[in-house]
Each structure stands twice: as C-alpha cells, then as structure tokens.
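Why do we bother with holo predictions? Because pocket geometry can differ from the apo form. Keep that in mind while you read this record for pyridoxal-5'-phosphate.
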Amino acid sequence: MICDNLSVNEKGHLTFAGQDTVLLAEQYGTPLYLMDEDKIREHVRTYRDAMVATMPAGSMPEFASKAFSCKHIYRIMAEEGIDIDVVSPGEIYTAMQAGFPMEKAFFHGNNKTDEDLRFAIRAGVGTIVVDSEDELTALDRIAGELGVKQNILLRVAPGIDPHTHKKISTGSVDSKFGVTVLDGLAVKAAETALAAQNLVLKGFHCHIGSQIFESQPFITASEMMLDYIVQVRDKTDYLPEMLNLGGGFGVRYVESDPVIDYAEKIAEVAAALQAQCEVRGLPVPKILMEPGRSLVADAGLTLYTVGGVKEIPGYKNYIAIDGGMTDNPRYTLYESAYTLALASRANAPKDFVATVGGRCCESGDLIQENVSLPKPVRGEILAVMTTGAYNYSMASNYNRVGRPPVVMLKGGKSTVAVRRETLEDLCALDK
Ligand SMILES: *Cc1c(COP(=O)(O)O)cnc(C)c1O
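The structure, written out:
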C-alpha cells in the first residue's frame, strides 16, 4: 500500500485509518473526502520534534494551510502548538473562527491589497511575509495608520530551480514571488524594510517549490540565503532572528515516488546550516519551514461511486465517477499522479486498464489515465489515495456541483469537519 494507514479487511473492503471505506461511503455518501487526523498529528510531531531537536531554539514548522483549510485543521495545529501560514483574508478569518492564536500566523502572498493588509493587522497576524518593495511601502503606511509596529519577514527569490513541475517551482529568479537577489535588489529591499518606521524586520523567507524529495535543494537555498544575509550584514550590520526555508518535502503519490524520512532530511538540513553559518561567521538563525502537503496529503482519501464503464473497442476504457475536477482538479492542472483502488473489492485482480473520468462537461476532467483496476460495476466504490492536500482546498462549484463533505477519522471514530454543500448553498449568493 502507498501509505501505512491503508489496508484491506476480511470483506475485501479497503480500510483507511482502520475504518471500512465502503461503510463510510454508505454512511456519508459520495463523493467523500476522508481525513486521517491521527496521521496528520503524527506528521506534525515528526517535523516539530525534528526541528526542535536539531535546530536553534524557537525553530518551528508552520502548516501552509492553503493545502487544506477549514476550522478543524486550525484547531489541530493550535493543539499541536505549531505555527500556520495563511494567504488570504479567508484563511485568516477561518483560523480566527477556529480560535487559532493569530500571533502564530504568517501572512503570505505576492499581491496583498491594502484591504488585506489592514485586515491582517486588525486580526493580530503575528508576521507578514512581505513580497515586494511596493508592499513594504504600503504596509509601513498602513501599520502607521493603525498605530502598530508590525513584524515582517522579507521574501527573497534566491534564484534556484529545484527541478519540480514548472507550476509548483517558485524560487527561480524569474518567479512572480519575492524580491530578486539579482542586481542587489533584495539588499536594497532589506534596507527599505530596516528604515521603515512601523515595521520590524524579523528575518528572511524563501520558498523554492514543492514536491522536493531531497535535502539538497534546501541546503542550496540556505547557502544562497546566507550569502545574501552576509551582504545585508556587511551593508547594514543587521542580523536576522529567523530564516524561513519555505515549503515542505515531497509526498508519495505513487509507488515509484521515494519513501522519505522527514526527520532525517531535517537533520541533514540542520547540519548543513550549522556548517554554512560557521564558515560565514554568522549565528545560526531560528529556522522555519512551511510544510503543506507533507502534513496532510497521505492523511486524505477520496471516495467516489462508479457510474459505469465505457469500453471503446480498439481505443480505451473509461470508468465514470460521481466527482472529478470539481473536487480534485490536480490531474487537469498538472497531470498529477495518483494511486487508485476499487474500495469495494480491494483484493480483486487488477486486470482492467481504464481512464477515470469525472462528471463535468469537460474532456479534460480526468482523475487519472491508464490505471489498472478490477473492472468495476455501477454502484461500486472507487478510492483515490493521497488526496489530503490541494483537493478540498482547490475544489470548485463548476457545473454547479456541490463540494463534498470532509469527514475526519480519529481513534476509530468519524466526525464531519465540513458538511456537504447543498443545492440551497449553491444558490445562497444569487439575487
Ligand atoms: C505552497 C507553499 C508552501 C507549501 O508547499 P507544500 O508543497 O504544500 O509543502 C509553503 N510555503 C509557501 C510560500 C508556499 O507558497
């Protein structure tokens, strides 16, 4: 199995977090997002404990909540004592509604409006990660108007391509995110930040991309960031309290993806940082990392009901499901790989090759192509694994399809974290 929270029971049903997925589909209906809360907490503790053990005091993972945002997840992060990233007033509001301590929130985004900045300051967001010179000026003015000295990090684009998919690589010099290190522009931005009356520069941020399976890209990024920090120090005497190395490690979507030991990779990054700082005569700053998917992806699974099978002789086969790009747009967007199983007969031979197509009026609405599965019949339950990240959070109402509910599984029990959208919900905004 792709993750250790999956198994097959005596009825031949797929189990997830120890619970029978076919029974859960009957109880809650499909499409259905399941989230294994115990697995989420396990990943959070792995990151947190590894960072505490190997990095300077105060080093901490932040959950990049764009991967999966709802009130329940912010409560989990509050209970586990880690920080969060938020990227919009909507995520800020949701975290506040969950009672998350907002001083532990970091507000990101390449274009925060004046309204967004005001909202974040009023919400008590602890740190704003400033993306550009324009934003520095605007935030300084707004913080002044509100009578606040706002903590910030400055986001720098270190000029690294970590060799992931183009749409999820963000640290290269031509990225839309952050101030570039080229031509001393990022040094100049640090000077602007230090001169700002109403801003307190706590340190620097970089994010090189997602789905990184090695420690090396993080080590390269930290090296470039430390070189940058030396330039800033030489010019201004400023030393940052913290350095944020960005998004978390990769996730295993299919068998061919490597299994990674997050604690071991974190220790490798920590050791490299220590050495890099020594060489440059720098104190090791507090380190922040921002895992999103690696905290929640394999804690998620989506269940669908099969509507039927279409065989096109000499061409291909389709399996139709009752969800699709509305609940999981990642294949349509990035051709993302996923592992699928027929939850109703999880041990049956996988002797049928098919493309799994969603219900939307869109040829590109596919979940996966050319997968081997037992040939299903209408009414059987199909499971797509590792859907805990960027599925619910990217879901849409295209074709006026309601979003599925999110059911949390914990210690053998299930509870609804987000209820299913109703037809009334779909018309709720219409005049
Ligand atoms: C998306 C993002 C993350 C999280 O990336 P994952 O691949 O989900 O770990 C972290 N930090 C920033 C700035 C991001 O944009």
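The chain has a mean pLDDT of 95.
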